[in-house]
Amino acid sequence: MVRIFENIIMDCERDTLSNDKSLEFPLITCGLSQKSSVTASSIDDDGFVYCVQRGFYTHSGRIILPQEFKVYWTGVHENIYPYLEFVTALLLIDMKPSAITKRLVFE
Questions:
Q1: pTM, two decimal places
Q2: Rounded to whole angstroms, how far apart are CA atoms 102 and 8?
Q3: Domain map (residue ranges) of the chain
Q4: What is the 3-state secondary structure (H, E, C) of 20-57?
Q5: pLDDT tens-digit profile of 26-76?
Q6: How far apart are CA 92 and CA 57, in angstroms?
């Protein structure tokens, strides 16, 4: 679970809310289920498609609407959750999806 600004990013497969104070912040869940706020709609050797299933607001108040975009990586990656959380954090600090697709490559 990561708290960034006024949001909590949570791996819905592993994390649990530890206290009632967490409920004061907007929650963005990451996982591979239809219930998650963000997910990977496809995963392959060169990356994954990051999918916003439920919109959320960035730190500046801009809304991130449901959408999909490609995130690239090199090598073998078995655990998708840290990548989903990191990309979500980048969106929360107002990085545009086009910048993530063009400039970010996980190694």
A1: 0.86
A2: 26
A3: 2-106
A4: HHHHHCCEEEECCCCCCCEEEEEEECCEEEEEECCCEE
A5: 889 999 988 899 999 999 888 999 999 999 999 999 999 999 999 998 877
A6: 7
